[in-house]
């Protein structure tokens, strides 16, 4: 049997000390920067920046690669999406075979949906049952407009804000009418929204969203991946991947966000 002898001048304890030092150095190298409370920006100014329309009038579009993890099944499909802040959305199912499952537009409070397989054309609101089943529980259609831009969904009326530091993120808790409405975590290094938590009407968590893989779309950066998880009891996990987002005026299509009934 071959025995390895330590080199002169180096004993076992020295080797262990070197290894420990290297491991600690590696951990220190990967350690996240420490943020102090004094580094927290003014909550009002931070919220205003995060909510600003950085591409007024422009349409963000792309092919969304969607994976949905439901309580009893997992689905994967693609959707053509177009969004314009603050209240315009278009979604079209891209079925591989046959007719698409649905086409939907939202503009303001009115939502229109066409179901090509049955020929139904529906006009309703975000609370209409047929429209609700297209979206995960708690996620409003116009929320998706802001999520695609990597921003917190709009909240109407008077708001109050509370700012704090949470790890490497600045945290904003937003209250409307005295009730918690949403929490926003902002990456202190990039200034981008890292994740969100949105309240339901009862003040519980309706859903959480995380933004990843930011990519350039014209003059702005938008998330290439959005991970959404709804609250209990019906937990749904949704992954939206937008690998090639585009930002354009789209003034050539005035009916982009107003679905018309099919010709008879």
Characteristic key phrases:
264 residues; alpha+beta; 4 helices; 15% helix; globular; disordered N terminus
Describe this structure in words.
The chain has 264 residues and is α+β, with helices and mostly antiparallel strands. It is built from 4 helices and 14 strands. Strands 1, 2, 3, 4, 5, 6, 7, 8, 9, 10, 11, 12, 13 and 14 form a 14-stranded antiparallel beta sheet that branches. The protein starts with 11 loop residues before the first helix and ends in a 16-residue tail after the last strand. Mean pLDDT is 86; it is low at 1-30.
Main sheet characteristics:
14 strands, antiparallel
Radius of gyration: 24 Å
Give the overall pLDDT as a whole number: 86
Q: Count of DSSP E strands?
A: 14
Class computed from helices, strands and strand pairing = alpha+beta
Strand content: 35-45%
Percentage of helical residues?
10-25%
Order of helices and strands: HHEEEEEEHHEEEEEEEE
What's the assembly state of these chains?
Answer: single chain
* Poorly predicted runs of 5 or more residues: 1-30
């Amino acid at each position: 049997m071959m025995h390895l002898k330590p080199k002169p001048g180096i004993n076992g304890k020295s080797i262990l000390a070197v290894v420990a030092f290297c491991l600690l150095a590696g951990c220190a190298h990967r350690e996240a920067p420490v943020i102090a409370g004094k580094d927290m920006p003014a909550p009002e100014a931070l919220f205003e920046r995060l909510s600003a329309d950085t591409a007024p009038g422009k349409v963000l579009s792309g092919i969304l690669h969607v994976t949905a993890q439901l309580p009893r099944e997992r689905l994967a499909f693609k959707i053509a999406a177009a969004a314009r802040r603050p209240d315009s959305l278009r979604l079209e199912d891209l079925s591989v075979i046959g007719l698409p499952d649905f086409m939907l537009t939202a503009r303001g409070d009115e939502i229109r949906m066409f179901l090509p397989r049955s020929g139904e054309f529906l006009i309703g609101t975000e609370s209409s049952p047929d429209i609700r089943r297209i979206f995960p529980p708690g996620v409003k259609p116009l929320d998706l407009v802001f999520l695609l831009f990597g921003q917190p969904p709009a909240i109407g009326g008077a708001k109050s804000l509370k700012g704090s530091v949470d790890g490497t993120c600045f945290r904003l808790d937003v209250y409307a009418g005295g009730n918690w409405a949403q929490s926003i975590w902002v990456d202190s290094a990039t200034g981008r929204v890292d994740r969100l938590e949105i309240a339901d009407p009862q003040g519980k968590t309706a859903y959480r969203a995380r933004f990843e893989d930011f990519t350039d779309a014209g003059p702005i950066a938008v998330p290439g991946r959005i991970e959404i998880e709804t609250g209990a009891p019906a937990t749904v996990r949704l992954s939206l991947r937008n690998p090639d987002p585009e930002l354009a005026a789209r003034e050539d299509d005035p009916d982009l966000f107003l679905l018309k009934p099919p010709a008879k």
